[in-house]
Amino acid sequence: MAETRKNDRSPVQKPRLITPEHTVSSVTDKISSIVLKRKVGKGWIFGLLLSFAGLGMLTMAVAYLLFRGVGIWGLNQPVGWGFAIINFVWWIGIGHAGTLISAVLLLLRQEWRTSINRFAEAMTLFAVSCAGLFPLLHLGRPNKFYYLFPYPNTLGVWPQFRSPLVWDVFAVSTYAIVSLLFWYIGLIPDMATLRDRAKNRIGQFFYGILAMGWRGSARHWFRYETAYLLLAGLATPLVISVHSIVGLDFAASIIPGWHATIFPPYFVAGAIFAGFAMVLTLSIPLRKFYGLEDFITIKHLDNMAKIVLATGLLVAYGYMMECFSAWYSGNPYEQFMMANRMKGPYAPFYWALILCNAIIPQLFWMKRCRTNPAILFAVSIVVGIGMWLERFIIVVTSLHRDFLPSSWGMYWGSPWDWMTFIGTLGLFFSLLFLFIRFLPMISIFEMQVLVEDSREDGHKNEHP
Amino acid sequence: MSDPVFNFENLRKKLASLKGPKFWRSLDELAETEPFKQFLATEYPYGTADFDTPMERREFLKLMGASLLMTGLAGCKLPSFEKIVPYGKMPEQIIPGKPLYFATAMPFHGSALGLLVESHMGRPTKVEGNAKHPDSLGAAHAFAQASVLGLYDPDRSKVVMNAGRIRTWETFRAFMAAEIEKQEASQGAGLRLLTGTVSSPTLAWQIQLLLAKYPKAKWHSYDPVSQSRTREGSKLAFGEITDVIYDFNKADVIVSLDADFLFSMPTSVRYARDFAARRLQPESPKTMNRLYAVESAPTLTGASADHRFAVRPSEVGPLTAQLALKFGITLPSEIRAALPAAPEWLNAAAEDLKMHAGQSLVLTGEEQPPFVHALVHAINEKLGNRGKTVQTIAASDAYPLDQTESLRELARDLDQGSVDLLVVLGVNPVYEAPADLEMEKKLDRAGSLVHLGLYEDETASIAHWHIPETHYLEMFSDSRAADGTLTMIQPLIEPLYGGISAHEMVALLSGHPGKKGYDLLREYWKTQWSGLDFEIRWRRALHDGVAEGSKAAEKTREARSAFTAADFSGWVPAARSEGLELRFQPDPSVWDGRFANNAWLQELPKPLTTLTWENVAMLAPATAEKLGLTTGEIVQLEINHRSVEAPVLIQPGHPEKSVTVSLGYGRTRGGKIAAGIGYNAYLLRTAAEPYFSKGLSLSKTGRATPLALTQHHNSMEGRNLVRAAPLTEYLHHPDFAREHSHGNEDLSMYPKVEYKDYAWGMSVNLNACIGCNACIAACQSENNVPVVGKKEVLMGREMHWIRIDRYYEGSLDNPAILHQPVMCMHCENAPCEPVCPVGATVHSSEGLNEMVYNRCVGTRYCANNCPYKVRRFNFLEYNDKHIETLKMQRNPNVTVRARGVMEKCTFCVQRINEKRIESEKENRSLRDGEIVTACQASCPTQALTFGDINDKTSKVTAEKALPLSYGLLTELNTRPRLTYLARVTNPNPALTTGAPSHG
User: Fold this and answer.
1) Same structural domain for residues B31 and B169?
2) Would you say the pTM of this structure is higher than 0.90?
3) ipTM of the complex
4) Which fold has domain A15-150+158-455?
5) What does residue B601 show for φ and ψ, rounded to 5 degrees?
């Protein structure tokens, strides 16, 4: 394995993605011990309980929602979409980094992805689960959600394929399935490692089932590599398609502020921006608490910060283009919409979003900021908030004052809106806490490969 | 039959031993095996298939009958063994699924509005105007539209109450008999009757008979909003109480001096029709009338005016006097001396009137004191308008008197303790009497207080006896239209909660306890319509709702043209610098409080303010600025040491230094909805100054409350939504409304759809629309539109399918006020349709944009994408599915929508289909005007026209072809089927002030 890869490698100096003292077995020990040996820490229990409380709140909010109807939220005429859609887009955006890291960076042979791809993929899955809740819950009649699927029925009624919401159903469900497969297939060799190392029967059984009989034979490895590569190829267009279609949910309408051709690419850039910010938000504490600084090195953080900076610039370009096309179109409704965003009742949110997404990330031009975990963490949180605000601005300010001034209104989330939103954060972190405790959060076998590689690189460095 | 064991030998023997043929179906039967018997038992469980016993004739017939019955019930689970009665003899006229219409009338505001009420299987569900009734001409105002909900109100009183306990009717009758007996001796000296304005000839006759029997008894009459001052004014002008009706059809120039004749007069529905008929008629634009409106608070009349002047209520009198001077009317010198200089516009208006002598009209409203009315009559007399645009007839009120004085007298008698038995018929003096009379305290002094009312209201709570009253849809009665035409009221349904009518109560007082309203009515009319054709006339009158030829005769008395100082009671010398004035008005939704428990009316956005569910203190922007007030701030209003707390609403166009409050709120009893909302403005009202008073002091409380307005933004933001121009511009550029349209009609990705059959469309004439809300209430009633409550309105979730958009344009102090009814435009390129993921909103072959409620999952994308924002979403379960009586009200032809589905205007598709079925049965196509939507039917001014736009001869096609016709937001290429006719105003070229400005 290592040999074949090595041959592809160009002789330029490799960045240090893993500290040189690590060996294949030390890597395995370190990562698998988090799952198998390490005692359940107080911090972990506290974190899980806190997240679980959030999940409980979500359950309550959803139960009441199903009992009373979407009227418990702050929705109204004219603002028919609110937190649910904002949160949906936000979570889907966060889910983007996983696929991007796994698939696109794999295809581009960006090796530094190795130590972060596993939990980035997990993050994607959990974020998509959170996102997937919202379109269901925001329906007036969630019990009839299956009307959106093209299932055979005696009425001969099909979904209405012109609607971007139908495209959304396909895009998001495809994305969720491919992400799950990708993640799971990547886990199989590590499951086998854990199965072999597990000391108790339950662990052996549990990991044994998940390992699906992996023995590590060359044939297994060959098939594994092929499948993984194919899935990566399959997942790559999804990175573009999912958020493009989410962008089309808005762009296909006629509402000023939504009806814009820039939306699909702008949404994709925003998604990657938010996704990488979230990976940073998660990886910085994780590497600290679990002592993974050796694996997730400053180099990783630096790279991610560069991507955040780049996508942030794309997003800022999007904001500029929105203003430009509103002005250039000569369309009074578009112009009013833009002026209303900047000067209307939601102006503080608009300017906060500009600050969070377009101005603060500029810190990453400085290497000092890119390599300082504390600053990185703070900025990543700011970007997360900024992206949420962006969706708020897009959804709410476009709707609340559209064509007929007689119908203008205001929108604010109700306590139930907030409970649902914070509840999904609870769901997300609950899943994440369980994940880091029960599954290897860094790909063991890929790190082994990396150890081999870096060792050889190291030798080269010593003997040029 | 799983294990048949046959002994074939036995079977053969058995067959051989039989005499005659024996038919057998199976070996099992022949063998009479146990399983076969069981089979028989389960197949014919009731022993009918008794194969053993020989059948008797009677048994046979019974079985035959049963079999026939069973064949008829094939498909049913089990025949019922309880006795059921077949629908063998159909109730006369009733065909299931087919509504019936009955003429009746709604007594209101001292008169009655003729109605045609739709009844489904005995349930009245929808109110329409009666085209034969002179005050309705087929239209009905929002109060009438909503009255059908009042009928089914679950809060109506249902039982006889005595001192807080439920009693039987017998106990009450016994009590009354005893009380009456006591009165016999004193000739009724202790008997008092308190009614509202009585326009029923029969009731008046009954009361007169009662008074003849008890000569010392007294009849008092009081309505908080009546025609009392108007009638006093006519007495001042003509020497006797006279009703004055106006013919707006013939008036070229109208000067309204604080008269809201389009909305709050008893005859407003009729007046609005006639007024609108003289607005712009595109085929003869020069015949357009001109309206100068002087008003003390913004009203719908002012909004429709060509010149609008906002003055304080006390300034209307001096203005009228100045106008009178210009027509040579003699005024006492002290009045003349007190008059300030006449404003310039008054001269222009006077000139205009003079140029149209005999074809003009000056009028004033009930709010103004009698002398203003008298001056107005004098001006009309001078202009030669009487007999042309002004008609004087005998009063329709059967007991015309100064109602305030009448109530004062009752209060005095109560104070003296000389009232043994006070019977209150349908009014609520505790709540609505002037505050200075302190009726609550005084009514306590009545020996016995008997209250007949629809609700257990404030008066019922202190009455000894409270008797449930019948709703007008449950009783027989009669009334008079404004022109005196006899109007019949007949019941559509038996009293839902028991109850008796005022007729029956008076009969009970007269010693005829069992007499029915029907008999009383006939008894009276037999005395009037002598002759053999009584039955024919009676039937005819009930059928038509009106008695033909019963118009009151015209009086020919001349109005005075000279006045003395004594005539000017209520004269307020103009002193502009003085403090705030307080002005009272009946609430446009709940009126004087009688409709406070009607949720439809509570949620109806009040004209101009779009306020729902409460009342406010309205004041001018300038006043608010001076006092530092904002909308929603709660202030304390104090006058004559009485005070209330009220939220402020800043109303553009309101006169400065004046505060307008609406009556009808702040109820403490009278139903779950009525009690506890708004504040009670009656607490500030005195007998001497019922409509306006000086010396109001206003102080801040530091608190604020959100107001449930349905429209928050008042400016069009320079958008071309309501298009309007003065007549002069229209004459030069008849297509001014189309100059700004840029829509490219043919731009579409999809092939153009041909509508080969019918193509439904609508045209809304903004020249006619006065913004009166009748259409909203009619739509609510027709289409089972739910009420959502104040909390939901505050969140912006009202459900009305049609709304009246209102915009202000021009200055803050006196802006042009523009109305625009907006409902689903049924766009041919409907933006809602392509975005629905489940195809729940689709286009019909006739161009209707249809909602499929069953299919809707509630993504709300359609509502987001609708540029007109006419879609309404059931965020919660808004329809009451528990209260039985409310279910009875609903239109059975319209789905009651569930939680989580979208809804919107359907162009009354149920009405289209009903007429289509009719036409198909007759094998013809639909005629123009055959289909009338609910909003269209209710519209007093006929502003809405509906029809087939494929029919080149239809009225709607003709309207759409006019240069005035324009579509809303057509630049979005929605191709709306609903278009508007732009508004044209007719300002006096000699005047620039007060003219609505149009940008």
Assistant:
1) no
2) no
3) 0.90
4) Formate dehydrogenase/DMSO reductase fold (1.20.1630)
5) -70, -35
